[in-house]
Amino acid sequence: MLSQKTAVLxxxxxxxxxxxxxxxxxxxxxxxxxxxxxxQELAAFIVSQLSFGQREQFIAKLNAMFDAADGGKSKxxxxxxxxxxxxxxxxxTRGASFAGWLTSGGYKKFFPKSQKKFYRFxxxxxxxxxxxxxxxxxxxxxxxxxxxxARYGLADASGIATVPPELRLVSAxxxxxxxxxxxxxxxxxxxxKLHMFLRWMVRRGSxxxxxxxxxxxxxxxxxxxxxxxxxxxxxxxxxxxxxAASAKTAIDLTQKMAQVFPDDPARADFAxxxxxxxxxxxxxxxx
Length: 287
Fold this sequence. Notes:
- This protein is mainly alpha-helical.
- The protein has helices spanning 4-17, 37-50, 55-69, 98-103, 107-110, 124-141, 144-152, 168-174, 192-202, 227-235, 247-257, 268-279, and strands at 78-81, 84-87, 117-119, 122-123.
- Strand 3 (117-119) and strand 4 (122-123) form a beta hairpin.
- Helix 1 crosses helix 12 (268-279), helix 2 (37-50) packs antiparallel against helix 9 and helix 7 crosses helix 8.
């Protein structure tokens, strides 16, 4: 059992960091760029897969992609604010359709089949494969959420039955992207970016997370393990100092956080990540 002191601290930190201002320097700033849920979840998925490394760099790349998707160039830019990237972009008009950009093949102009790197170790061709797969999912299932729900409901789909119950949701998501380089393929790994995306989609009543997938439960989410979360969790004695970035660690940490946030353990992500960022300004977001 966690000490009362630790529980009170975590609740206080979650209250402090889970605010609309959290999005100012976080990848979640893109979640409400579009007004339609189908566009929001597709955009959020690509955002999540590029959210690693230097924030200034990946936010600039995402802004360039969304500018292209919306049919024009923006005068806004990503600026460096206290060691983190802060978007000065205002929400786009309601007429833009990210799903339309994907399904019409518009992404092919921005992401030609080239091995030139778009961001870090992802090439333009890798990004084209990701966009193409998302387009096919929309054409076949109507939305990414509907596709994940269908897989999640089939116990024997793509090996989902062989993973622990805590990994069924992320396994259902992974099963939609076989061989897509931009998407983690092993549900037993940390899968930080996928678990962050799932948090965005599932948690409801949050000023940050969208809560679009009302068929899924926040109780089934795992805490995304990035450097800050691992460091602060170890410092607070929630995990072993040498705990690996793995599904096992994520499950263990999430189970402890369920004692503090019943039915919504992923809320601890705000407490641990926010505290870590404040104490480590200027470091990379890794894993």
